[in-house]
Amino acid sequence: MTSLFRIHPQPAFNFDGLVIDNFAGGGGASTGIELGLGRPVDIAINHDPEAVAMHDINHPHTRHHCESVWDIDPRAIVQGRPVDLCWFSPDCKHFSKAKGGTPVSKKIRGLAWVAIRYAATVRPRVIMLENVEEFVTWGPITSDGRPCPRNKGRTFASFTNALRRLGYQVDWRELRACDYGAPTIRKRLFLTSRRDGLPLVWPQPTHGDPNSDAVKRKLLKPWRTAAEIIDWSIPCPSIFGRQRPLAENTLRRIARGLQRYVLDARHPFIAPAHSAGVLNPHGTPPDQLVVAAFLAKHYGGNYNGPGVSLAEPLPTVTTVDHNALVTSHLIKLRGTCRDGQPVTEPLHTISAQGNHLGEVRAFLLKYYGTGDGQPLDEPLHTVTTKDRMALVMIKGEPYQIVDIGMRMLEPHELYAAQGFPADYIHTHTAGGKRLSKAAQVRMCGNSVCPPVAAALVRANLVEQQQIEEAA
User: Fold this and answer.
1) Is the pTM for the entire model greater than 0.85?
2) Pair (392, 440) in one structural domain
């Protein structure tokens, strides 16, 4: 395979020093670094064989070490050569708020100290570190394995002071991937340090809120949206009549999302016409069928909202993906439905057979009303015609919901949301071994968004070198 830096060339400069990616994973940071520098990463280190195998097939010019970062002697791998950049993305799970009140691992929380080892031994010109925002609260843990609330940030302060004592300037900032061209809102903390006397630079955003003055004045591009990464050729099966019914909480979230992003939306997102993956309920003529869509959270976690519009950037991709595409299939009403149902009557049974009657009616009617629904083993709650609960107006035309589909996003959609190049290989290794979907999603969720890494590296290495050479 041709390496990515040749597929996506950038102006290359003659860096004498090495570029090292610690905790390299499947290659998000390395991809961004290569896009920023226009040349491959020299050394990548990770303990996970699957991650190294994915990195290897996409970065064939990189020397790979499949072992713990603590088992690596920095002086042995650099062999006397200077180091221009060391990137560190230590495991963030034991800092993340998603961990909740679960005990944390002191060993995993201490992985970032390896950066001090490199700073003290091979003295990289620039050190960059990426982690969750809560990394700044890094402190000691109590005997019960939980962070000590009275010492929040104490260890983080020791870490940054250690860098300063070794001659590094240090600064950190939270950056959002959507501001740099990735269609996801993923926000992470980035710490940058350097010892060459040049100033630390934070790249200026290239994208912004479509409603902002900067975008309207064309100073920034509008944020890329979740709709861009959806593969509409993939079928989105109906939520009704499934062999394994969806959980009640999942149905509630779907219902709230439909209420907000379809029924109550002034401009619901409409999928591209004649999408191959869109089901066509009841053989409805294409000119009468439209599909409104949004993204729902399949699992709750710390998030229990109704989802997001496809006109917004994708929520953060996690190691076990929670983002589900929900499609509501709408048929245009012309006086009465083609099935013979007057608009003023309660919605008839949809895609239901036998004892599925209660389930479909409870969801489509009551869940679209003002309440959160009802137990499916109770008689159907009263349905009135006043609420017109299953109708939506699109450009003045009335539509009725005739089916609802849901599917989890596929790995290639998630990698696109993170900002990986379209040709990035995540399905198999160089030896031809297939990677499971779970492994692909895990490595995507753990990855650095390449556009952010590219912007940081470009600002602090390429552009700074241009300034230095011009002077």
Assistant:
1) no
2) no
